[in-house]
Amino acid sequence: MLILEASDLKKYYGDRLIISFKNLKIKSGDKVGVVGRNGAGKSTLLNILAGEVDPDEGTIHRYCSISYMKQFSDENITAQGKILKEFRVEKKVDTENVSGGERTKLSIAAALSKGRELLLADEPTSNLDYEGISVLRKKLSKIETFVLISHDREFMDSLCNRIIEIENGKLVFYEGNYSCYKKQKSIKMKSIQNEYEQYISEKSRLEKAVTERESKSKSMKKTPKRMGNSEARLHRRESGEKRKKVEGAAKIIETRLEKLEIKEKPDRIPEVKFDFSLTDPPKNKIVISGDNICFSYGSNVILNNTNFKIYNKSKTAVIGPNGSGKTTLLNLIYGNFKSIYKVPRVKIGYFYQDFQNLDYDKTILENVMGNSIQDESSVRTILARLLFFDDEVYKKVSVLSGGEKIKVSFAKLFVSDVNVLLLDEPTNYLDIYSIEALEDIIKVYDGTIVFVSHDSRFINSVAKRLLLLKDGQITEFHGNLKEFQEQQKLKNDNSNYSIEKSILQMKLTEIISKMSLPNCDREMLEVEYKSILHELKSLKKK
């Protein structure tokens, strides 16, 4: 059943066309994921569908009630007590002491409590911990129809059955989840690359053919020396006829060249190369360590007599529930906390999303070159890898979106003289393409990186170690999040096996005891004994 339709819609900001499409239909059962580069118009689209922003052209018909889960919301929270408890924020309503993740949970609970037919959700997983994301995933899986903007690829994979890509203001539709979209998009990009290469080959062939015929035509104009007048007239007439044919053929080829459909060159993603030795990196095996760390905010104990180590050139993810002290730990590492030791040659760069390191009156290139120890060629490569191509590097920072400013901040860190990076939620507010680009840069970065993230796919892609924060303690794990979860599952399975095995063995002991009693039903007990032995064997096989 059709529940929303938008037709011939256009939206401008100033003289810039943000959104322009012919038709969009949302039907019952559609679980739509919206993707696109930062500034492509994803939030604008949801604002228009929700009726919070009017289009400049076009019409929208809404045949349903709508609930809107905004990315930044200051509305008063009115939510069902059950949902608040599921997100564990029932005690946070009408209080000022609320973290970013808790505020997000409150906003989600309010939107879900309205029980509308269509849910619009703009980056609902931002600032959520793993528990919050898990609860939200279960809730959305039970909602029949939604339109979702998210940079969390695992989240979209588990929920969406359609993907809308916003590209140059247009909507491109793909069936399936995010992984299906990626496969279809990859095939499409290969086809575009092949078409471009064929276009360049054909253009080159036609230009060469025109040049050859023009050269041949010029050579025909010359009359050989020592030729009589009558022979010269005959030669000129014959050569004139041949020249007309050659020039005619050249014009036909020129016409074909003019009518040749132009194919734009696809953006080429360059390989990142820069001289990391310029940062004078430390040679120590362990570059940062914490011993017997204790830290509190008043009576709220964050870290309680705990330890950790950061290894040279490692990529370490700091994970844990909201309020466990992840950002606090980064702050302590960055500062001069007495219980944390950093080797002498460590130079730390800290990314956090307030853009204090950016000069809004300068261009992207000027900002990044300002403190760069790399040459301009390396800087341009980093910027291109972060999807700032060609003349885009001359844009003023003041006109950039929040996600684009984040990428400029990253670029400044990567080409600076620092050799240890602290990144606090680096994927928040980045589009999916930028997250994947950031992953690729981090993988080839020669320095040490410690980062906080709730993006499971990002962690699994780049992290080789984990610092797990819970109940004031830090636990180190060598491996990524997927490997940790598999180990935990194995431990749980082993624990369950031990419990089940103990129960069955106790039953066997009980049966043996009963068999020793006079007047027992031995035949029935033997049947039961064999049955339990069979259960034990089956349990061991599992």
UniProtKB/TrEMBL annotation:
Residues covered by region (Disordered): 209-241
Keyword list, A-Z: ATP-binding, Coiled coil, Nucleotide-binding, Repeat
Coiled-coil blocks: 182-209
Keyword Zinc: no
Domain ABC transporter per the UniProt entry, residue ranges: 4-193, 288-496
PROSITE patterns, per the entry: ABC_TRANSPORTER_1, ABC_TRANSPORTER_2
UniProt xrefs under InterPro entries: AAA+_ATPase, ABC_transporter-like_ATP-bd, ABC_transporter-like_CS, ABCF, P-loop_NTPase
Pfam families reported in the protein's UniProt record: ABC_tran
Protein name: Ribosomal protection-like ABC-F family protein
Species per Swiss-Prot/TrEMBL record: Clostridium moutaii
Phylogenetic classification of the source organism: Bacteria, Bacillati, Bacillota, Clostridia, Eubacteriales
